[in-house]
Automatic annotation (TrEMBL):
The keyword RNA-binding does not apply. Belongs to the HpcH/HpaI aldolase family. The keyword Nucleotide-binding does not apply. It comes from the Eukaryota. InterPro entries: Aldolase/citrate-lyase_domain (IPR005000), HpcH-HpaI_aldolase (IPR050251), Pyrv/PenolPyrv_kinase-like_dom (IPR015813), Pyrv_kinase-like_dom_sf (IPR040442). Pfam families: HpcH_HpaI (PF03328). Keywords: Lyase, Metal-binding. GO terms for cellular component: cytoplasm. GO terms for molecular function: aldehyde-lyase activity; metal ion binding. This is HpcH/HpaI aldolase/citrate lyase domain-containing protein.
Amino acid sequence: MQAANRLQQALRTERGLSFGAWQMLPGANHARFMARTGYDWILVDTEHGNIADWQMHEAVAAIAAEGVSPIVRIAANEGWMVKRALDTGAHGVVVPLLYTADDARRLVESAKFPPVGRRGFGSPFAMGNTGKVSATEYLQTANDSLLTIVQIETKEALENVEEIAKVPGIDVLFIGPWDLGNNIGRPVLGEFHEDLSAAIDRIYKAAVDNGKRVGIYCAGGAAAKKYADQGFHMISVVADVVALPTFLSNALETASS
C-alpha cells in the first residue's frame, strides 16, 4: 500500500522533493487530465474549491487510477471531514485552520485507526485507490501509509509551530502564504514582506528540526522553483483556476498580436 502512495514515496527519499497541482474545479475528467501532466500529486480542494462530496469521491478515484497521489484538503479540522476524505481512498489529507498542538493531536486521532487514533473502518472505496489492497491489509497498513498534513496559516499556528511540529503522526507542515500573510498583518500585495518571509523560514526550521517535511503553496512555476532550490519538499506549483485563464489569455494575446 505504501508503494502506491507516490507522494509519500517522494517525501521519503533523501531529497524529499515532490511537485503537485491544485484542483478547485469539479469533474472526474478534469482530475484525470490534471493527473496525466506529470505531477506527483493532485490536491482536491474541498475548502475553497467548487467540489462537493460526491465529486471528491470521483476525483480521487480518477487521480489514483493514473498512478498519482490524490490528496484532499478538507474545509476544517473536523473528524467527520477527515473520515470522508480518507474513506474515498485519498493518500492524505491537508487540514487548514489549526491553531495549537492540541489541534494537531486531535487531527491525528481522526486520521488514524486504533490504537493510535479513533478513525472508524468501513469504507468500501478506500482500498481500490490505495494500491488495490484487501480490506484487511488496508486496515493494518493505513496508519503508516497515509499522510497527515497540517496547514500553518494562522497567527496562532505560527506562534505554536515548534510544538505542532513535535506532534507524532503529523507528516508535513504546509504553508499557505496568503492566509498567513493576512493573519500576521503582512498581506501579500506583491513581493512577500520580510516578516512573512521570516515566518516561512521559521516554519521550515520547525519542520526539519523535528523530522517533518515542509510544503508550500505557490502561484506558478517560478516561485515553485525558488522554494525547491531552498529545500522545500511538498510544493504546489499551480492551481487549475490560475492555469486555465492564464493559458487562454496568453494564447489569445499571441494569436491577436
